[in-house]
Amino acid sequence: MWRNVLRKTTLSSGELELLTWRRGYSSSTSGHPARRFAAVWGNGDFGRLGVGTLDSQWSPKPINCSSFHHQSLKSIACGGAHTLFLTETGRVYATGLNDFGQLGSSDLIKYSREPVEVSGLAKGIVQIAAGYHHSCAITEAAKAVHRPTKVECLSGLTIKLAALGSEHTVAVTDGGEALSWGAVASGRLGHGLESSIFGFLTSNSEYTPRLIKKLEGIRVKRVAAGLLHSACIDETGSLFVFGDKVVANLGFGEAKNATMPSMINTLPYSEEVACGGYHTCVVTRGGELYTWGSNENGCLGIGSTDVFHAPERIQDPFLKSPVSKVSCGWKHTAAISDGKVFTWGWGGSHGTFSVDGHSSGGQLGHGSDVDYTKPTMVHVGENVKALEISCGFNHTGAIFGYM
Question: What is the SS3 string spanning 245-292?
């Protein structure tokens, strides 16, 4: 449990405060045009797009600068039915559904149609992440606080990365150790079957961060969390995956679950990883894109809906340049290549967060709710370059910079 983490982890002199909670063209503060802005598209239920309405957007729509007090944006994180924004000054804004407190606002607020600043956060936020029902931020001083109540056992650790899945979280310390907590089903936490007696789980959840022992001695540099599985990349470029693989989203054939991290040794040096509903994507050092797992609605981008049990390289003429970023939604995928956004997979909309009269798709950004089985470029405008991309349950957001 947590005592084991303390024995195996080098403590920092500064406190860790991983800020987690649950339950656009713009101008800078100086009056000059901001260097970066956010554009969003897809399902608009509960205001998750932050454009002031519940209407869905089938094409990219910039968010008005006034929502962020005319600040330039650094990153974006799309969750189940909410979205987080991080400004270059280290302030965090949230929009969308607040049924579990994922906006970090008053419980009296059911949802917000426009981004509102997350209250009670320390200054100097450097990273944000959004899960299905919860949110997270990491401070520059590497401090970690759990909202609404501080998790005292995290004091003394320095967190540099965090990824949020549907009901679990995976974090990485500055020493490369990986910790996980949340729902244990399907092995998504990577702890094996140690929490069971005679094969029966003694608990459905890990309530405090726990060291992933199978990764001891491995310095993790990237981490991703999906619906029921997780993945990480170590400093040598090796990929480790764990969790649900009923539809082979982990690349180990047709076995049921991988409850502890297992390495996929068929990939070149890996740089980026993303986990979706039931599929996984990896970007290699050479900018190659590999996908595998469930291919419902064409989310693998291979031109068909065939399931792939092992990594398959995407060799599409649209991707003429190396891929730099990739993100996975429930059943859709987005990537950045040469400053351009490409999307594919599920273009429709249904599920938990539908609102009568408003629910629609459009998360691919191609002007319709049609599925695409191959990477297709999203048209945003001239003289802009995509810098960051994030896929939510059925919406997508990106940060663009002016060229």
Answer: CCCCCCCCCCCCEEEEEEEECCCCCEEEEEECCCEEEEEECCCCEEEE
